[in-house]
Write a structure and sequence with these properties.
Elements lengths: L9 H9 L6 H5 L2 E3 L37 E3 L8 E2 L5 H6 L10 E3 L10 E5 L8 E13 L8 E7 L6 E7 L11 E6 L11 E7 L10 E13 L2 H4 L5
Antiparallel strand pairs: 1-8, 2-5, 3-4, 4-11, 5-10, 6-9, 6-11, 7-8, 7-10
This protein binds calcium ion (CA) (3 copies).
């Protein structure tokens, strides 16, 4: 499954998911978005953690079981945090999974609490991409934007240094999906800087960037999958006798 071939049309996908077409993937990689959030302070937000990790050959994580080993919830900006299906209360009972996925899903629902500041991320385990080229990150999502002073955003970031610096790969500040579905299936191309690295972690961040409390509705995630191509060892190194 991990070697399933996708046609990752870089320009088309970037234009579709971010509205950006002129910027190269390297430019986007170099656009440092945020530095806060060392992964060591992540919790599990009340979701159980399993023993199997996620990565190039694990297939998708669809929130049906416990979190993959090493995943965490990082919520430095306030009381709202990603949780799983039933933890989202009325969003789950009234709306349900509107990501294009099925069954359980990840969700955060600021609209169901009093107005507060928030900043919550689902952070993946550290993936060792040695001997792999990363083809792309795929996930199902639904993001309901509130654009009062551009107060809320959904972003996907990556770190190669355990949260010391995060680099932005995608930002949404507009609706993606309908309140009652459908959702959106995202195929995010990944820059070559992520290939052949010892620790690659992604985060799915939902937050309100301006100072103070902002209004938010909800975000949902499901079926998060990394697509990789294994690089044959003979192309990486050879013995000299
Ligand atoms: Ca699911
Ligand atoms: Ca917004
Ligand atoms: Ca804020």
């Amino acid at each position: 499954m991990a070697r399933k071939v996708f046609v990752w049309s870089l320009v088309a996908v970037l234009a579709a998911v971010t509205g950006v077409s002129a910027q190269s993937d390297t430019d986007r990689y170099n656009e440092i978005r945020a530095t806060e959030g060392a992964v060591g302070s992540a919790t599990h937000g009340g979701i159980a953690e399993g023993s199997a990790s996620w990565g190039c050959e694990s297939g998708a994580y669809g929130f049906e079981g416990p979190l993959p080993a090493g995943w965490g919830i990082l919520s430095p900006g306030g009381p709202i945090q990603w949780s799983k299906s039933a933890g989202c209360g009325q969003l789950d009972t009234i709306v349900g999974n509107v990501t294009n996925g099925s069954g359980d899903y990840g969700c955060a629902v600021p609209i169901l609490t009093p107005l507060v500041a928030w900043d919550t991320s689902i952070v993946t385990n550290a993936v060792n991409t040695t001997l792999f080229e990363l083809d792309g990150l795929q996930f199902n999502a639904n993001y309901q934007n509130v654009d009062l002073e551009a107060g809320d955003e959904f972003a996907v970031d990556v770190t190669l240094n355990e949260g010391g610096t995060w680099t932005n790969l995608l930002t949404w500040n507009e609706d993606h999906g309908g309140v009652f579905g459908p959702g959106e299936t995202v195929q995010l191309p990944l820059p070559p800087q992520l290939d052949n690295q010892p620790t690659v972690r992604f985060r799915f961040r939902y937050y309100d960037p301006p100072a103070g409390p902002q209004l938010g509705l909800f975000a949902q995630l499901d079926d998060i999958e990394l697509f990789c191509t294994e690089v044959p060892v003979e192309l990486q190194s050879f013995d000299v006798e």
